Amino acid sequence: MTESALRESNYPQGQPPTLQTTTLLGRNPPNSPRAMGAARQSDTTKSHADAASDKATAAFIRRTLCSHNVLLGNGEKGRNTPRPIEEVLPPLTSSNEVDLQLYAIISVIIKEFVQTWYSKITPDHVFVNEVIQIIAHCTRALEQRLRKVDLEALLLDEIPGLVEDHLSAFRLAQQHSSRPQSLVSDPRIIYHTLHPHPALTPVPTEAVPSSIVEQRENESAWRQLLVQGVLAVLLPTEDLENGCLRALVAEIFAEMILGNGISGKACEGWLLWEGITGIAEVLQDGVKEKDAQSGDTSSPEQSLSRLERFGLLSQPANEPKKSTKPQLTSRHQDSVPMTISTLFWIFIQYTLLVCTAMRTVIMGVATWSSLPPRSVAGASGNNSGSSQSPTIEANHQWRLPQADHPDLRRPLASKQAIVSMKLWSCASQLVELNSRMPWLSSLISMLHWKALFGPGKLGGTEGVLDRYLSHTMQIRVLNPAFVPILLRTIRATLFPNNTLGPPRIPPTVEEAKKIKRRCAATLLALLPSAVAATFFSSDLQVVQLQQLETQLDCLDDAYLNKHLIFQIVELIMVRLVPELGERGVQELIEERLG
Length: 594
Prior knowledge:
InterPro entries: Phox_assoc, SortingNexin/PXDomain-PKLike. By secondary structure, the chain is mostly helical. It has helices spanning 3-8, 19-24, 33-52, 54-65, 85-88, 96-121, 126-146, 151-177, 187-194, 209-234, 237-241, 243-266, 269-293, 306-309, 340-366, 422-430, 433-436, 438-453, 464-476, 482-494, 509-525, 529-536, 541-552, 558-576, 585-593.
């Protein structure tokens, strides 16, 4: 029995609580404006949750893809209990939970972008059925290829390596463009010279309007060739021979997903800042839940210390009450004087922290022998960190990074240790650790060398620390049980109530600055006061926010962000479809069609 049902059973005949009962429970009267607003908000949240439930999702898929009874088969019409979705539609993956969420996303796309114009041409659903069969064939092939990809190297080494190169090139371009003696003052030109990409050539400038048109044409050609190359490998031969069907499917994926979704929206700086803000808020909620479970019921707006909140420090009676309104002043303006009680509880806190760390280390060492060895990907070239950009030749013999690159030819036996992957150097580059705290960077480098070549080689490949980090990565990040939850969250965010949300109006310059400042404030709230004051060399929140905003400037230019996003897309494609890095698109099509 659920908690709501348990609450309803406490009242006679399922009657809701009366006004007196509500007042006693400390709730708002039902007719008050606050209660009515809360009720409307709860109804909206409940409707979104109901639309995202498995039962409502299955019903939506049936209405969109199965209402015509073409795919239902014999005996489906007239049944009291409908057949499960997995028995009606072709499987997309090996998991029914993942298929349900994927079919829900496909249903929204087909309803909004295909049926709106296709139903005006003809009432049949042959084309929709063919699209579903093609998508099912491609997703099953991609799942088999995904099993051979070294996801640890992709997420912890290759993608962070691209981010690190982006940060280095951006800061170098800003540094050179700000010099008065520099011949090139446009940071876009400097960045593109350091990291050229064929889809973003030439650099669009207002002074040369033809460069904007030429760059858009090259970007459109890049999208089409990328999708055509993937379809040339994954599509069945009979569907690949159908040029009209192949062109229509390629147009949907190239323009709708890559064009409008990734190139048009995902590269905007304000959208990336909002995404970072959302992730930081989720992390804050996790910290709040841990504090609530440990008995800490404080809110971020409270300026009292933990010792004061628990009544461990007394406050003078004549001392005015501290304001709960957050102010951009020194974090230590209202610091509590160090007393014996304060020192005692700080000692207890750090003792518990050290004990917890020691317990984690001991448990990791004790369970090391039982941890499984790191899995080795079956596809060659999945350990690489190559960020080489593709080239578009004159005859459109376009291909992704070449498979004969030295990094791509690295043998699978030389698996890289997790502590040596580029995630850590990328984090150091992101926070500018070498320039802010060179002593800490040197200390980390020494610990890294000791972990790799010190006694026991704890951080080496298949070492104690390496296996522990890999096992934690497999459980906390790469757990297949998280995939349906992630897909459901993405669908609820992009398509609320299984429909397209209202078009997002791009923010103005001032609104974008507010989004960036909010992102910086959310990230700053994740840091303890002492850590933030030491790292930013200032106790003032204004100074700390300004420095964080300066670090977030690396995502300000959408054109520069496209270099990073496009390289990530290419990297993922060449890992899933290694044939794209070996032969051109025209060669792949001719090989398949004979």
